[in-house]
């Protein structure tokens, strides 16, 4: 009944039963068999492209000059690491991801607290709130760009007055606001699940002992919510770091490189400049960066599971 | 359990009457409406005439017309919707067929290194699609499979597989081990156990996993925009034409945006509970 944060990898599955040596191999393979199709498919479709990327990253290959393809070793990496556009893209990716994740977690926390009480129409309010997350991201980006931010007939200027050109004056903020609008419901849902899994007895006991609302919140609720906040932030980062739709639609990375993030920059290098070697090297750099961040993230996930196991 | 819950709700009910509680209720409604406002605006604008759509101050009251929708269908959105439907449904089916046995081998009858395998799957989800785009593009082009809906089906299957494995595993772990042991003692074969005991219990989990996979495939844009064109274009691709539109097009845009968002919005509204569990990879129940 109660909602709990439980266990992706939490409880250890039933241990293999010991068997005589001959049957053991057969047993191992019968255990593996159901896993193999998925594993092989995942390896084929996700790992082979990365090997190809590695190979391509050592080539000087611009698709506009098909004849001149040659091995250049690590030259593409030198190019990529010293490229100011790419460094700008890296900064923009961090700003965009961190901004959107932090804002949507904080907003989501506030809204989850509002919804963690019974009130007339709670189900309807919840339904209204999750809708932004369900709107197709591409449609949402178009809607904000044209129907909301437009200086002449957009909704913001229509309601507040003025003729601010939101997208060209505040490009990063415009992109982040759209993403926050879409991701706050997601954070709210996860945090709400956390709030509802709190033990009411402990909360009552704290109140009986004379703890104020703020004390209860900071001393009991927030520590309890920590794994939920971490999970929300982690999943949000995984998706938001790959933001493409909103940048592609709202700003096209501009003005200049003001909102060009790594996915969009690599897209430009590949399909606008046709610098295949450079794009591949940039891709490898992104993968290495992601591995570093992901190792940290996986540690967070694992610690969540250990916490669950200890409970 | 029940006692705790009823005590809790009684506590809430008594607080509801106070003015402070009323303020919180109003605030919650205001926030809900504020977040919904852009969606409402999108739906309303889709039913306007173009001159009303681009008015300042905004037009809130108008006679609804279907011009926007008619124009969207005149521009042939139907094939895009059908491509999306095909890519999303088939990839979801393939994901379930691959992920469910894999999840079984990571939970109920686990392989020795189940933990490593599980983290391998999730790590493929963390690798940015952008880094794989170029080789995928070149390989797909080499095999003459650009702008082919089957390419998208394969890629979406790979994209959603890790998520589905994690979700299905968390659902399978909920099957009481005693039940499976009892079936084995009664001499039931593995297939009978799966069909009679596992499937009925994890059916809601399968539905939740299918919903999440469907949503992610339906909304996917990055791979679609780079690998498809007119023949296999999915519904977000239909929207690309609106990015730099000039002149009166807002009603048409909003009609198209509403139309392509509708399947996922409806599915998400109906299955709110499963949505939470699915989005958190099964970690939040």
TrEMBL record, chain A:
Subcellular location: Cell membrane
InterPro entries linked to this entry: MetI-like, MetI-like_sf
PROSITE patterns for this protein: ABC_TM1
Topology of this chain in the membrane: Multi-pass membrane protein
Domain of life: Bacteria
Transmembrane segments: 33-56, 94-115, 127-149, 169-195, 228-250, 279-301
Keywords noted in UniProt: Cell membrane, Membrane, Transmembrane, Transmembrane helix, Transport
GO BP term, pick one: transmembrane transport
UniProt family annotation: Belongs to the binding-protein-dependent transport system permease family.
Protein name, UniProt field: Sugar ABC transporter permease
Natural source organism: Micromonospora musae
Lineage per the UniProt record: Bacteria, Bacillati, Actinomycetota, Actinomycetes, Micromonosporales
TrEMBL record, chain B:
Domain ABC transmembrane type-1: 81-271
PROSITE patterns, per the entry: ABC_TM1 (PS50928)
Transmembrane segments: 21-44, 85-106, 118-137, 149-168, 197-218, 249-271
Keyword Ribosomal protein: no
Gene3D superfamilies the UniProt entry points to: MetI-like
Name of this protein: Carbohydrate ABC transporter permease
Source taxon at top rank: Bacteria
Membrane topology reported for the UniProt record: Multi-pass membrane protein
InterPro entries the record matches: BP-dep_ABC_trans_perm, MetI-like, MetI-like_sf
Biological processes, Gene Ontology terms: transmembrane transport
CDD domains: TM_PBP2 (cd06261)
Keywords: Cell membrane, Membrane, Transmembrane, Transmembrane helix, Transport
Principal place of residence: membrane
């Amino acid at each position: 009944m109660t909602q709990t944060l439980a266990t992706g990898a939490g409880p250890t599955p039933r241990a293999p039963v010991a068997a005589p040596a001959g049957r053991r191999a057969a047993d191992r393979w019968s255990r593996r068999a159901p896993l193999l199709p998925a594993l092989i498919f995942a390896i084929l479709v996700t790992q082979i492209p990365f090997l190809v990327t590695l190979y391509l990253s050592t080539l000087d290959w611009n698709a506009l000059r098909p004849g001149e393809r040659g091995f250049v070793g690590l030259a593409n990496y030198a190019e990529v690491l010293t490229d100011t556009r790419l460094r700008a893209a890296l900064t923009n990716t961090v700003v965009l991801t961190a901004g959107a994740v932090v804002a949507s977690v904080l907003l989501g926390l506030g809204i989850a607290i509002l919804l963690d009480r019974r009130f007339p129409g709670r189900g309807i309010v919840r339904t209204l709130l999750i809708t932004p997350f369900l709107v197709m991201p591409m449609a949402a980006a178009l809607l904000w760009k044209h129907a909301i931010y437009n200086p002449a007939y957009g909704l913001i200027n229509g309601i507040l007055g003025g003729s601010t050109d939101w997208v060209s004056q505040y490009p990063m903020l415009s992109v982040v606001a759209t993403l926050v609008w879409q991701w706050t419901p997601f954070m709210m849902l996860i945090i709400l699940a956390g709030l509802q899994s709190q033990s009411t007895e402990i909360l009552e006991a704290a109140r009986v002992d004379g703890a104020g609302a703020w004390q209860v919140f900071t001393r009991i609720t927030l520590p309890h919510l920590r794994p939920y906040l971490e999970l929300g932030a982690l999943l949000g980062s995984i998706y938001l770091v790959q933001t493409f739709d909103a940048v592609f639609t709202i700003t096209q990375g501009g003005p200049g490189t003001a909102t060009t993030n790594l996915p969009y920059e690599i897209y430009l290098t590949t399909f606008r400049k046709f610098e295949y070697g450079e794009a591949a090297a940039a891709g490898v750099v992104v993968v290495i960066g992601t591995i570093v961040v992901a190792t940290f993230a996986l540690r967070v996930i694992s610690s969540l599971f250990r916490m669950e196991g200890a409970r | 359990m029940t006692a705790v819950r009823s005590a809790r709700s009684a506590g809430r009910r008594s607080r509801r009457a106070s003015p402070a509680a009323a303020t919180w209720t109003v605030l919650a409604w205001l926030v809900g409406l504020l977040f919904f406002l852009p969606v409402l605006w999108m739906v309303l604008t889709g039913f306007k005439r173009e001159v009303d759509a681009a008015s300042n101050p905004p037009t809130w009251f108008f006679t609804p017309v279907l011009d926007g929708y008619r124009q969207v269908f005149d521009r042939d959105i139907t094939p895009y919707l059908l491509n999306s439907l095909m890519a999303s449904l088939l990839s979801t089916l393939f994901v379930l067929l691959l992920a469910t046995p894999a999840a079984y081998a990571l939970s109920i009858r686990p392989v020795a290194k189940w933990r490593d395998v599980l983290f391998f799957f999730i790590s493929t989800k963390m690798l940015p699609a952008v880094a794989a785009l170029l080789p995928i593009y070149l390989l797909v082009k080499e095999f003459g499979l650009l702008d082919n809906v089957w390419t998208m089906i394969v890629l979406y299957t790979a994209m959603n597989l890790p998520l589905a494995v994690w979700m299905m595993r968390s659902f399978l772990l909920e099957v009481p081990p005693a039940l499976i042991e009892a079936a084995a003692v009664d001499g039931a074969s593995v297939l009978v156990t799966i069909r009679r005991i596992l499937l009925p219990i994890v059916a809601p989990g399968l539905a939740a996993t299918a919903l999440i996979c469907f949503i992610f495939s339906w909304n996917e844009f990055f791979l679609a925009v780079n690998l498809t064109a007119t023949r296999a274009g999915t519904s977000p691709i239909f929207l690309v034409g609106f990015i730099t539109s000039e002149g009166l097009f807002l009603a048409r845009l909003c009609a198209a945006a509403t139309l392509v968002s509708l399947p996922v919005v409806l599915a998400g509204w109906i299955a709110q509970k499963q949505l939470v569990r699915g989005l958190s990879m099964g970690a939040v129940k």
